[in-house]
Amino acid sequence: MNKSPKQISLENKILDQLKGKSLQAAEILFADEELQAMQDYANNVSIKRLGYNDHGPVHMRKAALNALKMFNLLENRGVKMSLEKEGIALQEDSMLAVFAASLLHDLGMTVTRDTHEILGLELARPFIEKVLNAVYSTAEVATKVAVRAIIQESIFGHMATRKIHSIEAGLVLVGDGSDMEHGRARITALLSEKPRIGDIHKYSSTAIDKVIIDQGEVKPIRILVKMNQSAGLFQIEEVLYPKIASSPIKEYIELYGQVEEEELLKYI
To answer: Cβ(203)–Cβ(190) under 8 Å?
Structure first.
């Protein structure tokens, strides 16, 4: 299994965030060679065939790490996940769902960009079942059903084109949208030979230096997007902010943008 140093580094950071059932799930999925091959192929389709930015193993791990950081920030402030609030499952079950959905959310890119979130539901199914069957006993069928549903909702809703309702799915949505640093568009920029419609996504992405997720001053989560030029504002206003605005976790987020050393721009 060929994994890049960046991918391995992200996996180690993710493992540090996990415990219990979610840690067991991560160990299973990180060792799955077919999943690795699918994520690699998703990147081939996205970058080489379609000219989009990274939708492969590094992106899916960054999205997972972002979502888990926010999960822990909410937990630290006493915010309960939807499954626990509704008396259906525990926080560790929600953590498993958030991690698994984030890691699997872009498998539909192995086929095409259009409705890849719907295609991804079917492509993710065997990996979801592999993990749930390994982690949950036959006596935990109700919890297993709920976790599966949250994973499916999260994959289905990660493009912010369809309404989602759980905090867990909201974390996956915003975790995905927060992966927009310049490295994500690096290969696409190198391969580009002529201008094309949609290049604003590539150029605005290269303007993003860092996305920092930490504890907010008033709300549990603070997202700061640091840019080297104002083109990066497109990424905030057209990609990240719409995802936050349609997410069930909007009320818990402070969003800022900053170009170089200029004054902070507060969005929410």
So the answer is: no
